[in-house]
Design brief:
It is a single chain. This protein has 2 domains: 15-40 and 284-379, Aspartate Aminotransferase, domain 1; 42-282, Aspartate Aminotransferase, domain 2, CATH 3.40.640. It is globular, with a radius of gyration of 21 Å. 46% of the residues are buried. It has helices at 15-25, 42-53, 66-80, 95-107, 124-130, 149-155, 178-188, 218-222, 230-233, 248-261, 267-276, 281-284, 286-300, 329-340, 368-379, and strands at 29-30, 90-93, 113-118, 134-139, 160-166, 194-198, 224-229, 242-245, 316-320, 342-343, 345-346, 359-363. The protein is built from 15 helices and 12 strands. It has a 7-stranded mixed β-sheet, sandwiched between helices. Strands 9-12-11 form a 3-stranded antiparallel β-sheet. It is α/β, with parallel strands linked by helices and 381 residues long. Keywords: Aminotransferase, Pyridoxal phosphate, Transferase. Belongs to the class-I pyridoxal-phosphate-dependent aminotransferase family. This is Methionine aminotransferase. Pfam families: Aminotran_1_2.
């Protein structure tokens, strides 16, 4: 036997795999994992097919197809008023998770502290630990998951290398306001801290709110890598297509790692996306599309015993089950699958050992018939 000293000794099977396997074993309605159960726009699929047939089947340029980077630059400038140079400040990635991993591996050295806002997407912390970084958790507070800015500020030290934020926020469905972003900018101003901004749900914000990208705030933009997702935006998570933007100084370093990590990603899909993005309606309509999904789901379960605050963004909805049982969320999630044939995600897996709230996360990016099946189960509990 080979004696292996694991670099991630505390990492086991993810909750998504565990819940997915349990859901399959019990033939449960699955609202756990965050992906749609419907196809992308036929127009986009047509463009992808045409690109494959047109010969885009070899390596793409390392930074990504220039035509795609140009239309991304235009999109960001139109939405957020910040211009990223398509040749030096944008890179196409194998999904946002690769962009996040590459960012952490590029900038985090052994002993560097990284502030992670909890609950947090489960890929952040293993990547930090893999490169010798130290996770400094700062928890969102209350049932509305708001930032305590004094606690955040007190978490910063001389060893702080990076802060990771995520808005719209997975798993809570909360969003950061303009006031939040200005406060973050005030606290980080004058520091040497890099900001990693996970904005994969930027086009899924509800009730007339606007996505507050760090690109809108000059000092934040000057220190930030923004990670975005085509998969989340266009119902095509299996394509693993994303991109990141950053000032040239940061992007030069990111590129050094990216070229040996992935080098380039699917050329034909990039060409198709470049054409598809020329029509802003293809992403601007998503707020309304997913708000209708959210409202449909919430209306269907309005008479259930679960308490709910409508999600402000993402395609996730938290349900508070505190009036039903005092069970730990992981136990209730398992029982919900085994006894009621419905799969969700317990929030504690995103938080830490001291988390004791009673929330489960449900993905409403599903066809209405699936949401109806889930509602019937929830209403019967």
């Amino acid at each position: 036997m080979i004696n292996i000293a694991s670099k991630l000794p505390n990492v086991g099977t993810t909750i998504f795999t565990t819940i997915g396997q349990l859901a399959n074993a019990h033939n449960a309605v699955n609202l756990s994992q965050g992906f749609p159960n419907y196809d992308p726009d036929p127009k986009l699929l047509e463009l992808v097919g045409h690109a494959f047939k047109s010969g885009y089947n070899q390596y793409a340029p390392m930074q990504g197809a220039l035509s795609l980077r140009e239309v991304i630059s235009e999109k960001i400038e139109n939405l957020y008023g910040h211009c990223y140079h398509p040749e030096s400040e944008i890179i196409i990635t194998a999904g946002a998770t690769q962009a996040i991993f590459t960012t952490i591996s590029t900038f985090v050295h052994s002993g560097d502290e990284v502030i992670v806002i909890k609950p947090a997407y489960d890929s952040y912390e293993p990547a930090i630990e893999l490169f010798g970084g130290v996770v400094i958790p700062v928890a969102l507070e209350g049932n509305d998951f708001k930032m305590n800015w004094e606690k955040f500020k007190s978490a910063i030290s001389s060893q702080t290398k990076m802060v990771i934020i995520n808005t719209p926020h997975n798993p809570t469905g909360s969003i950061w306001s303009k006031k939040d972003m200005l406060k973050l900018q005030e606290i980080l101003k004058g520091t040497n801290i890099i900001l990693l901004s996970d904005e994969v749900y930027e086009h899924i914000v509800f009730d007339g709110a606007k996505h507050e990208s760090v690109a809108k705030y000059p000092d934040l933009a000057s220190r930030s890598i923004i990670c975005s997702s085509f998969g989340k935006t266009f119902h095509a998570t299996g394509w693993k297509m994303g991109y990141c933007t950053a000032p040239q100084q940061l992007m030069q370093e990111f590129q050094k790692v990216h070229q040996f990590n992935v080098f380039s990603v699917n050329y034909a899909i990039q060409i198709a996306l470049a054409e598809y993005l020329k029509n802003p309606a293809h992403y601007l309509h998503l707020n309304g599309f997913y708000q209708n999904k959210r409202d449909y789901f919430l209306d269907a379960i309005k008479d259930s015993r679960f308490k709910m605050t409508p999600s402000a963004g993402t395609y996730f909805q938290l349900l508070d089950y505190s009036e039903i049982t005092n069970e730990k969320d992981t136990n209730f999630a398992e029982r919900l699958i085994e006894e009621h044939k419905l799969a969700s995600i317990p929030i504690s897996v995103f938080c830490g050992t001291d988390y004791n709230k009673r929330f489960l996360r449900f993905c409403f990016a599903k066809t209405n018939n699936v949401l109806d099946q889930a509602a019937e189960i929830l209403n019967g509990i």
